[in-house]
Amino acid sequence: MSEKVIVIGGGIGGLATGLRLLKNGYDVKIIEKECRVGGKVNLLKEKNFKFDLTASILMIIEPYKELIEYIDKDFSMFFNVKSINPIYRVFSYENKYYDFNNELYKLMNTLEDFSQKDSYGYIKFLGDTYKHYIAANNYFLCESQINKFKILKPKNIKVIESLKTSNCSYHYIKKFIDNNILTEFLAFQSMYVGISPFDGPSIYTLIPMISQLHGLWHIEGGMYRYVEVLEKFILELGGEIECGKNVEKIHIEDNKADGVITNKGLEKCDIVVCNSDFSYTIKKLLNENNSQLKIGKYTMKKIQYTCSTFIMYLALNKKYDILKVHNIYLNKNFKDNTQKIFIGELPIDPSIYIYCPSKIDNTINKNGEEILNVIVRVPNLCENSVEWNENTIILLKEKILSILLSIDGLEDLKEHIIYENYLTPKDLESKFNCFNGCAFGISPTLSQTNWFRPQCKIEKLKNLYFVGDSIHPGAGVAMVLKSSKIVTDEILKDFKNYN
Question: TM spans, by residue (predicted)?
């Protein structure tokens, strides 16, 4: 008789883990409180067009493919994937723009517009960071960090020292590059995991390096297409998905998870997998005294968290040639405005990311509308320093529109808006149970990464497992897919089903 698994949360981690366990013969039920699965990797849909709700940058495609191949399916049969070039168009407040391309000769043309010295520095930065990526990927990102004795082997300690993570991302980049625009373009991408480039460890310079060397990709139909295919496979393999049902507690008996209590009663099982936000799970779904549980070096009360995000969704009845798929606008006083986010203040002159998938994807807009997600990093709700009311939304909307209208070629954008909507930290908290509206969960500081980060299980509680962006190896869809592989392997080992 196969073990019964209940997965709390139908986000990308819950779906991926459920699919892997189904492949290994487990009886899997996924419980999702919202009306459809996907978690934050979701969809905003109107009659004529649709938006990816949050996730928009596909930068490491291998984990996406690996999951589909794990269940003996051909990735190419279900997804039409396009390579994006240039990977970014970068606008500066000085009214200039620069295209960053994967083709080396085109990239060099852009870099040499800065200087030959910075061109050499950029290439050297890529090489040095790539070396760190190989070490991190081989020793840490793809493996569980539960066994601390294994981690502390001399060989692993040597690898850790070679990563040179003590520098912050910004200062590490400055070792190679003088130009501020080029430095800020690379540093801006560190915030993709919700950490400041002026405080976060230099290991997150892996993000711009991976984008530049491995490229960026787009799944036709948007990121939610991947969710739809996972849902289809789960149902085909006999899994059950129940939406509109809320898990209120995890049932623990003799330090063992043996079921969940929902708004409809107790449901028993052999294994509980939590894809719900980790901090929310510990504080709300387990007994209150579990807030004292040690997570790495710290109790939950001492955990640091990532920033949040504000997203403005715009549909336009005019096409704008000046935009590419991925665009970054670097505003003045980059450091001051970035640091404000992490001390609980809204940036005065924010730098923004502009996603325009309608450049290469006509399946998301029936009448050829231009589709934009404009994303601004903002404080989380931990300090309650920003009141998320209509006035705050209007303030950010006006800031964003002011930036967009300042770009040559977008001067009349405001006149062509036919739809707009917003997502705030309050939405992340209420719809997706993101603890204090933190967009990326637990902050990946040096003291909260690898073995110091929450792992896929807690020693004191049996048959309870975790997957998601707060769990090792970290935030981002690709990392969560790796997390799903790690937790599945642990379950198979624990239940003697590991080959």
Answer: none
Indicate if 474 and 405 belong to the same structural domain.
Answer: yes
Q: Of 12, 156, 23, 65, which is closest to residue 491 (Cα–Cα)?
A: 23
The pLDDT > 90 percentage for the chain reads 81
| Domain, as residue range, for 99 | 1-77+85-104+219-499
225 pLDDT more than 90: yes
Shared domain for 183 and 225, answered yes or no, is no
Q: Residue 402 has which token pair?
A: 């002011």
| Shared-domain flag, residues 290 and 388 | yes
Segment 385-399, tens digit of pLDDT: 899 999 999 999 999
pLDDT at 155 over 80: no
Do 258 and 213 fall within a single domain?
no
What's the whole-number mean pLDDT along residues 114-119?
96
